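Running co-folding for zinc ion.
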Amino acid sequence: VNSDQVGRTGSSDLLASLQSIVGGANVFSHDGIEERYCTDVLRKHSSRPAYVVRPADTQQVSAVVKVAADAGVTITALGGRTGVVGGGISPDGGLILSLERMTRVLEVDAASMTMTVEAGVPLQIAQESADAHGFILPLDLGARGSATIGGNIATNAGGVRVLRWGMARDMVLGLEAVLADGTVVSSLSKSLKDNAGYHWKDLLVGSEGTLGIITRAVLRLRPRPSSTQTALLALRSFEPVPELLRKLEGRFAGQLSSFELMWNDLYEFSSGARLQVRPRPLPAGSPLYVLIETLGSDAVRDLELFQTGLEEAQESGLIEDAVIAQSERDRTHFWDIRDDLSELFRPLFPLAAFDISLSLADMPAFVERTRAGILHEFPDSQLFYYGHAGDGNLHLIASLDRNDPEAESKVDMTVYSCVRALGGSISAEHGIGTAKREFIGFTRTPQELRLMRSIKQALDPRNILNPGKVLPDLQ
Ligand code: LAC
Ligand code: ZN
């Protein structure tokens, strides 16, 4: 289909063009659109897109972008729908471009230790395919079963191993994307070193579908670790956390890959919900719990080092209690307490979900101040703090007062004012979407925001790609 043939004609022409590009079975419109394309996982953001299109390959993505852009219809790329900031919600009347049919792992290249995948591959499938070839794709997060590589890259996903291997950005070696005018830009490089000009790939990573639509990626793999040590620690307070992290990182000689914090409320709630299945690994009631994991290559030596490290930490009073996973079943149980939260939170809807970063030293002040501030205004709110301490990343889930339509904006203001005062970021890993757009100025300067706007303007002058996300409307 040539976009010139479509021109600025009516919606039935656009529909026909879309059908001819991807086939009638892969276009839905208006009332034929399933609910899952209209809402997000927290059921907080929703809209009425006019079209859902499911292309099979990059050429189809490009053709869809051309005809939609030509008809002046906005395009929102959609991955596994696990985002929590409204980034995958189309404007009303817009087009959802779902990557769900582009799920091929195209290659695992052992020599260059890379894998090449289509954007719609679920993270877990990519992980499993790396594993089957003797590698690890270190990106990992609770939503691994549904989240897709394209979405992970478009949001620069973080997760539970950033401490050791970095965020999605750090695993992207090559990228292919479709720009706002349908141009396919492709640099499926497998080299770690490639300084030939501007790194446009890095612009697209984390751009939340506003600068281009990611269609393929080359990801960096590492040799698969063969031994895993996991432990749950109880602490008497937050105070020893920085020293504990420092000591363990040093002691475990580069093997520490996760250092996850859970405040007691979260630990008690999440481990309590599983009591029919397993007893708690450690009793509830300590102020703070830390889930740590090392990945190494020598089971006997690694375990010895792990035990020694933990004993030393206990002797020097940094930890109160510790339990080491004795089996894969233990390990899964520990991780479920930390990771498997979305169903548990469902009865508490509506929720406000935060994802902030700040210096480790400021975390207790943040927790204390926001807890006091929120409970002062909403004494019945349930608050759960947890996070990826190794990365300075904290999450807070706050149940909202259903009877107060202003509840969320009040809680937002309490939290983000505190983040600003402490010099932190309003988004560590979830992105901005629409949910945090109005607060981006709490973290970014006006000069930075002007630079971002010029980039958006240069790449998408007609504001076709996922409009309304990331940048607040101009005043
Ligand atoms: C987590 C997601 C919410 O850390 O970022 O569980
Ligand atoms: Zn997280």
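Result summary
Residues 299-315 form the longest helix (17 residues).
Residues 88 and 317 are 46 Å apart (CA to CA).
Job closed.
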